[in-house]
Specification:
Elements (H helix, E strand, L loop, with lengths): L1 H9 L4 E6 L6 E6 L7 E2 L2 E4 L4 H18 L4 E8 L7 H18 L1 E2 L8 H11 L7 H8 L3 H15 L18 H21 L7 E5 L3 H13 L2 E7 L2 E9 L1 H9 L12 E2 H7 L7 E4 L8 H9 L4 E3 L15 H7 L3 E3 L1 H4 L2 H10 L7 H22 L6 H13 L1
Parallel strand pairs: 3-5, 3-6, 4-5, 7-8, 7-11, 11-12, 12-13
Antiparallel strand pairs: 1-2, 2-5, 8-9, 9-10
Helix pairs in contact: 2-14, 2-16, 3-4, 3-5, 6-14, 7-8, 7-15, 8-9, 14-15, 15-16
Length: about 400
């Protein structure tokens, strides 16, 4: 696996597009690792301090993810080094997408990512640039459909991603009009845990869980884990956190989800970040869902959780460990050798899978069909890993080997 990984990591990306904004200090990159299958896909993120190496590592991660979610295309990513809280953000995104629109028409498909919203920013801004849909390049480059078929499938994709959830199994509150895009990634993170216990033995019900991050992914993961009967004992977010060693009830987690301040945990009894960051890693817990930014989790934090009975990690964040390596760094390897570590390209493939699902010809548009498809995709990937290695350790190593054999 390590030899395959070294070849894959060191292979230069096929395309690097670099942009400098004419009106602000913003700088952006689209990195296309390869045009496997004639196209590449990966979302657009924005954060202050982002650099090209971050975008490159995420592009390579996306390519691995497509071996699980489909379609059979290359990995890509876009990143903009700019403060997303800056009031000039909208103008920056408008100029960025105008510059990158020829790629989006031809062979690159994008979507929302960290601090960039799929529905309110990516779709309307790219439409104004003459792009039918942010995934148009994948249709053009990979599927090469007839014009009529392209129109039909883009219509299906457009409708599906922003579909308002009507089923109370999947929506915390149907009156608030949560969409597939709002909930699917966190759902996949929770389903990875449920499928893990189903395949490797055990039951998610009654297991204690810690969730890191309470944005779109973390809050939805907490919601669905609690719905399955897991006991969320700790939540740590940028602003602070909450701890309840007996476990929050499903109703309490649901209320925390509904009370979010944008993408941030909000509660009257919020524990300050420094205090919760000291305590949360020492909680007795079996499940850990890291759903915050990349490269945050230290070996000390993981060691502490392992001592407290940690069984499984389902990664909602891409590359959640504080390793310098693109993928399989020393902290990730240490973790993989000691507990069941479901890698990000399996557990957080929900949105990529939704795109792939709606790109197919005439699919069912019900909440159940969409969410079950993501669950089955994750289940099949975990089962495939189990069939190659039935041990509860080295799951990530095995999963990477399966994926990299398709790419190298």
């Amino acid at each position: 696996m390590k030899d395959l990984l070294e070849i894959y990591e060191n292979k230069q990306p096929e395309i690097v597009f670099n942009w400098k904004d004419s009106e602000t200090e913003a700088e952006g990159w689209t990195v296309i690792n390869s045009l496997r299958g004639g196209a590449a896909g990966g979302g657009t993120r924005m954060r202050k301090g982002l650099d090209m190496n971050e975008v490159l590592s995420l592009a390579k991660t996306m390519e691995v993810k497509f071996t699980v979610s489909g379609p059979v295309i290359g990995g890509a990513k876009s990143g903009i080094n700019f403060d997303p809280q800056d009031p000039r953000k909208k103008g920056v995104l408008e100029r960025w997408y105008k510059a990158v629109s020829p790629l989006l028409k031809s062979y690159y498909g994008t979507g929302g990512d960290l601090n960039v919203d799929e529905i309110h920013e990516v779709i309307p801004i790219t439409e104004n640039c003459g792009v039918w849909h942010p995934q148009e390049g994948v249709f053009t480059g990979h599927f090469q459909p007839t014009e009529a078929d392209k129109i039909n499938r883009i219509g299906q994709l457009r409708q599906g991603v922003i579909k308002v959830l009507e089923n109370t199994t999947y929506s915390p509150d149907i009156s608030r009009k949560y969409t597939v895009a709002d909930m699917i990634t966190g759902y996949g993170v929770a389903e990875a845990v449920r499928n893990y216990y189903e395949i490797y033995g055990g039951d998610v019900k009654g297991k204690r869980a810690v969730v890191q991050g309470f944005g779109n992914v973390g809050s939805a993961a907490a919601y669905y884990l609690a719905q399955m009967g897991a006991k969320v004992v700790g939540i740590i977010d940028r602003a602070g956190g909450l701890i309840n060693e007996e476990g929050f009830s499903f109703e309490e987690i649901k209320q925390l989800f509904l009370a979010k301040d944008g993408n941030t945990l909000a509660a009257d009894n919020l524990i300050p970040f420094d205090e919760v960051n000291e305590k949360v890693w020492a909680l007795k817990t079996e499940i850990f869902a890291p759903c915050a930014a990349s490269r945050l989790i230290t070996q000390d934090q993981i060691s502490s959780m392992i001592e407290q009975g940690l069984e499984v990690i389902s990664c909602g964040a891409n590359v959640p460990f504080a390793d310098k390596e693109i993928f399989f760094g020393s902290i990730m390897e240490y973790t993989d050798q000691r507990v069941s570590l479901i890698p990000d390209f399996i557990s957080n493939c929900g949105m990529a899978r939704v795109f792939a699902y709606f790109m197919e010809r005439r699919v069912q548009m019900t909440d159940e069909a969409i969410f079950n498809d993501t669950s089955m995709t994750i289940k099949n990937a975990i089962k495939n890993t189990f069939d190659h290695n039935s041990s509860k350790t080295n799951i990530s190593k095995t999963a990477f080997e399966i994926a990299l054999k398709q790419l190298v």
